[in-house]
Amino acid sequence: MIVAIGADHGGYILKKELSDLLEKLNHEVLDIGAHSYDSLDDYPDFAQAVAQTVASGKAERGIMLCGSGVGAAITANKIKGIRASVCHDAYSAHQGVEHDEMNVICIGARVIGAESAKEIVSSFLNANFIPEEKYIRRLNKIKKLEDG
Ligand code: RB5
User: Fold this and answer.
1) Number of domains in the chain
2) What is the whole-number distance in angstroms between the Cα of residue 66 and the centre of ligand 1?
3) Which atom of ligand 1 is nearest to 69's Cα?
4) Half-sphere exposure of 25 toward its Cβ, with a 13 Å CA cutoff?
5) What is the set of active-site residues?
6) Pocket around ligand 1: residues whose beta carbon is below 6 Å from it?
7) What sign results for the dihedral spanned by CA atoms 75, 97, 53, 86?
8) How far is CA 78 from CA 13, 19, 33, 81, 128, in A?
């Protein structure tokens, strides 16, 4: 799977660890940055880039890391077609895809450790949307809101 990954300074170190895992699992990694540590960089720049890479179809899923995951999710959800959430447990990571077709996962590198993050990301990438009528119906309600 083609996976876009990004992080601000809060998630910079975790991005390297997760990118290594993704490569080990034979995913194609699109690292949209930050490409160097800068304590003054801004998470919206990277969250926007991850979200647009997914929304454009250049990547199937996105992973965005910041200190808490919160700013990343707020930003990514501004991009049409993106369904992003903070997930700090494996259940939410796969259920969010299965029921809600979550396509960007946001993780707070100051909240959970690298090993938990790896399990969460694996759950996210191994999950697929379940095309049951009730899930499609709910998604259509979200899409209607997005269209205004
Ligand atoms: C950066 O210090 C921090 O505010 C940011 O990484 C993130 O936690 C925002 O949600």
Assistant:
1) 1
2) 5
3) 10
4) 19
5) 66, 99
6) 8, 10, 43, 66-68, 70-71
7) positive
8) 26, 25, 19, 9, 23
Burial of 84 (0-12, 13-18, 19+ CB in 10 A): buried
3-class DSSP state of 3: strand
Which residue segment(s) compose the domain that 120 sits in?
Answer: 2-146
State pTM to two decimals. Answer: 0.98
- The residue contributing the CA closest to ligand 1 atom 3 is 67
Question: Which residue's CA is the closest to the ligand 1 atom numbered 5?
Answer: 67
For residue 8, which atom of ligand 1 is closest to its CA? 6
Distance from Cα 26 to the centre of ligand 1, integer Å: 30
Q: Give the pLDDT of the chain (148 residues) as one tens digit per residue.
A: 999 999 999 999 999 999 999 999 999 999 999 999 999 999 999 999 999 999 999 999 999 999 999 999 999 999 999 999 999 999 999 999 999 999 999 999 999 999 999 999 999 999 999 999 999 999 999 999 999 8
Are 19 and 44 contacting, i.e. CB atoms less than 8 angstroms apart? no
CATH number of the CATH domain containing 104: 3.40.1400.10
* H or E element that contains 140: helix 133-147
